[in-house]
Amino acid sequence: MERKLGLTILVSVFLAALMVGEVYAQTVKAYMGTSPENNVKIVNFVKEKTGIQILQTFQSFGEIEAKVKSEAPNFNADLIVGCGSPLAFMAKKNKWAVLYDSPGWKGVTSEFIDSDKNWFNIANFSFVLVGNRDKLKEKGYTMPKSWNELTDPKWKDQIVMPSPLSSGTANMIRYAFLALHGEEQGWKFLAALDKNIHHYTRSGNAPTDLVGRGEFLLGITSDENVKKRIDEGYPLLWSIPEEGIGYDGTFALILSGTKMMDACKKTIDVLGTQPFSDMMAGIGYMTPRPAPNALYGKTTPKYIKLDLGWAAENRPKWNDVWKEKFRTEFK
Amino acid sequence: MAKAESYSVPESTFWERLKTFVNAELINIFAALLFLLLAIFLLYPILAVLIKSVKDPQGLTLGYYLKFFTKGYYFRSLQNTLLLGFINTIISLVVGFCLAYLTTRGPIILRKPLKIVSMMPLIAPPYLFAISLIILFGRNGILTKAFGFNWSIYGFTGVVIAQTLAFIPLAYLMIENTLMSLNPNLEESAYDLGASEGRIIRTITIPLLTPGILKAGLLVFVMTIAEFGNAAILGGRTPFLAPDTYTMIIGEADFEMGSVLSVILIIPCIIIFFLHNYLLTGKKFTTIGGKPVASEPRKMTLLVKVPFLVIGFAAVFAILISFGVVLMASFTKILGVKNEIVFSHILNFDSNRAIYNSIQVSLIAAFIGAIIGTLLAYVIVRGKFFGRNFIEMLSLSGFALPGTVIGIGYLLAFNTPPFKLTGGIMILALNCVFRFLAVGVEAGISKLHQINIEIEEASADLGANFMTTFYKIILPIMFPAFIAGFIYTFMTAIVSLSAVVFLVSPGFELAAVKIFDAAVYGEIGVASATTMKLVAIVIFCMMILNYLTKKTGFDISQKKGAI
Questions:
Q1: Is A201 helix (H, G, I), strand (E, B) or coil?
Q2: What gap in Å lies between CA A220 and CA A213, rounded to an integer?
Q3: Between residues 475 and 534 of chain B, which touch chain A (CB distance below 8 Å)?
Q4: How far apart are CA A36 and CA A284, in angstroms?
Q5: Residue B508's pLDDT band (boundaries 50, 70, 90)?
Q6: Would you tell me which residues 119-158 of chain B have a C-beta closer than 8 angstroms to some C-beta of chain A?
Q7: d(C-alpha A6, C-alpha B545), whole Å
Q8: Which of A71, A77, A330 minimises the CB distance to B76?
Q9: Is B418 on the interface with A (CB under 8 A)?
Q10: Which residues of B touch A20 (CB under 8 A)?
Q11: Among all residues of chain A, which has the CA nearest to that of B544?
């Protein structure tokens, strides 16, 4: 008898686990590529303003790109909130996005919204150089003034930067250096830099934490979390070397085939509002609607001249070159 | 003449004939259904990987393999992976044996504590050790700063240490289980005849343990080369096949090269699987031993005791420290930078949904897995159909298939209609079911071997139909195997990463993946806190299961040993 009782309880536990399902009113599934904590901020913002619950997984821009490419045209998500320009342009080209003329995005400049309403750039971000204040002092080093100083052998194994294969930040970093030096010289610079790189991280924000915790002296990293980490007490120094920095957008788009069109549209609408820009600027982003930036203040950083569309076209080629140069053979 | 007799049977209705047919052929029907399931959820995904690795838009090609063998990078990756596998297997077996010997023949007071600590890593994600090694030995790690170490934990050594600590419990459990079922009489006799303890271990204990040790070795080897969490967090630029496969699929959508790496990863596993089966044929002597005979434990001689204790304690100490620092990190603001006590990591509820999903997936997987495993064991032992050995091999192959490969296989096989399962919860559960099936099947097989088929025949002779016999006789006998399969699948599924990482989708995140992401990202506090929550939940679930199984009259610790 007792054996049967046990079995019954086991079965009921199992069934209970199955039954307890969705409790949210309206949910959409999204691939979100900002940092995990910023993803949560965006999710909470959307929930507060619209009541829509976004279910999301954190992935780097490059990973979202890989995922969307491999799933097309049967996407496992309703929308993307936060991917890089390569995927945004690819989605437009392949008609993976649902065209939507959002009332929430009226009056936004063309840099932030696609002319055909395929994608919406919720915020621009950049990369900066970060250093560990305490560790640099210990060694008697100062923050480099120019990107070229990073190739100095004294930094050997002391620099971390993200991998351009998985990270959108790194894709932006790579392209910025190619644009700065021209392709041929650019690759030479990257090769010289590679000699000092300890390893390439998966996500664009990881160097901020790794350098902040004192694991490495310098990092080339997304500017997204720098302000927050400094506020939290990480001994971080950050700077924009004299040559300037690159930038990329953080794109949102509705994936075709969604069954939650209404909720998707509402989500896109709210991402174009002033309060959303205010929140993103408070984190350190450059936003579609002007707002005081937490990291750069009122000054606009010096940007390297870029053509994101052209860079998106060249991304596959550059990935191949990068793999060939920095992964395939060992020094 | 015989013909005439069969015609004399009175005509029966269609339903009756169907019933008789089903009753007589039920075992074959089951076998066919189970084979179909295995074919869809185990063979087909593996085949999908194989096909992907030799296909390009123009047709069949070996180009990707050529690339693999001509580029130094991939070769280094293979070399590192195999080396990691062998080193790890050997260390885990040695340490596992020492621990198992201590907990079965060592000082009584040490047995229980040693056993508990040795099994602790089973309830945590394997890459807990990568996190703890960074906390301790990272460039800004606690011990690095305290003693001014100048060596780097990032690289091959770090990965070996982390993986070894993660897989010692596996080796320990399997060796301990064989050691427990070993009849001590042989050892006692040798002892009485004057053999030294060292000699007894060398000439009696270890040879008798061969099947257990081989199986443990196989499992540790496969798990080591497939579980990529530690290598991805600690590897730096040292290439290993499993994390490289992960990067290729997740980061670059390079399915072709990812598939090639998967196939290469399978080869050593399959070789070892067959080698292990070959070596084991005719060596099943340990199972005959039956229940251990209660006898007064001999005192271990000092010459054996001291080295065993040193090795055992070193491992146990390392495991405890690792759990300790991770626990500490979950309450520290920024470990090594701002060592203030905070509760914000623990109170960070972003991962709650993922933890909930993990429990749900593991429960579903455990339930389905235990049922399928028990049925498979039954048809394998009692069935008399063609291809029985093949089904047995197939269902036990889960032992030898690296998780990454099955994960990628599922992604390739079930991503397009009509078989579209990705983006849901069932793909996660089914993946766990078929990956961890082997344990339930094996437990079931060994249970069935213990009972004579005469009981079932008697039941049938007394007029019971197959279902009644199954329900009244077979099910109760197989229940312990069911529980063993259930618990193993549940525990392994809830902390495993290597396959499910490819299959999570928005809304169906799993805790193990979430922790891995946080750790890779560098958020040690959040990663540690989520790990601790997961560990607490696994312990809680185990306690409930333990209570339930005790209620049902089975000793769980014994069943866990059967794993």
A1: strand
A2: 15
A3: 476, 479, 486, 504-507, 509, 517-518, 520-524, 526
A4: 15
A5: confident
A6: 134, 138-140, 152, 154
A7: 10
A8: A330
A9: no
A10: 360
A11: A10
Q: What is the interface pTM, i.e. ipTM, of the complex?
A: 0.82
Q: Are residues A176 and A320 in the same domain?
A: yes
- A163-192 confidence digits (pLDDT tens): 988 888 999 999 999 999 999 999 999 999
Confidence (pTM): 0.84
- CB contacts, 8 Å: B476 with chain A: 3
Task: Pick from A35, A57, A222 the residue to mutate for testing the B interface (most B CBs within 10 Å).
Answer: A57
Please report which confidence band the pLDDT of residue A91 belongs to, taking 50, 70 and 90 as the band edges. Answer: very high
Q: Which domain holds residue A73?
A: 26-124+248-283
Is the per-residue pLDDT at A218 higher than 90?
Answer: yes
| Range B211-226 average pLDDT | 88
Nearest to B506 among A30, A74, A166 (CB): A30
CA distance B536 to A101: 49
Clarify whether residues A63 and A211 are in a common domain: no
Mind giving me the DSSP string for B210-277?
HHHHHHHHHHHHHHHHH--HHHHHH-TT---HHHHHHIIIIIH--HHHHHHHHHHHHHHHHHHHHHHH
Same domain, A90 and A235: no
Confidence of residue B86 (pLDDT cuts 50, 70, 90): very high
Q: How far is CA A310 from CA A25, A168, A169, B219, in A?
A: 42, 15, 17, 49
Report CB contact under 8 Å: A214, B420: no
CB of A150 closer than 8 Å to CB of A196: yes
Query: Can you say whether the dihedral through the CA atoms of B464, B466, B471, B474 is positive or negative?
Result: positive
Q: Using CA atoms, how far apart are residues B414 and B441, in angstroms rounded to an integer? A: 25
- Whether B499 maps to a domain, the answer reads yes
Q: Does A67 touch chain B (CB under 8 A)?
A: yes
Mean pLDDT of B395-408: 85
pLDDT at B6 over 50: no
Same domain, B47 and B164: no
Query: Measured between CA atoms, how close is B283 to chain A, in angstroms?
Result: 35
Number of independent structural domains in chain A? 2
Q: What are phi and psi of A195, to 5 degrees?
A: -60, -25
Cα A70 to Cα B148, B254, B431, distances in angstroms = 47, 9, 19
Q: Is A27 on the interface with B (CB under 8 A)?
A: yes
| Residue A294 tokens, joined | 């937490």
CATH number of the domain encompassing residue B361: 1.10.3720.10
Instruction: Select from A23, A41, A56, A76 the residue whose CB has the most chain B CBs within 10 Å, as the one to mutate to test that interface.
Output: A76
Beta-strand runs (E) in B53-153: 55-56, 59-60
Q: Which of residues 441-480 of B touch A (CB under 8 A)?
A: 476, 479
Q: What are phi and psi of B215, to 5 degrees?
A: -60, -45
pLDDT in tens, B272-285: 888 887 877 755 54
Q: Is A15 on the interface with B (CB under 8 A)?
A: no
Residue B336 covered by a domain: no
- DSSP string for A218-267: EEEEETTTHHHHHHHT--EEEE--TT-B-EEEEEEEEBTT-S-HHHHHHH
Mean pLDDT of B84-94: 95
- At residue B6, φ and ψ (nearest 5 deg) are -65, -30
Mean pLDDT of A36-63: 89
Contact A235 B337 (CB under 8 A): yes
Q: How many residues does chain B have?
A: 563
pLDDT at B286: 43
**Using 50, 70 and 90 to split pLDDT, how confident is the model at B140?**
confident
Note the pLDDT of residue B438. 86
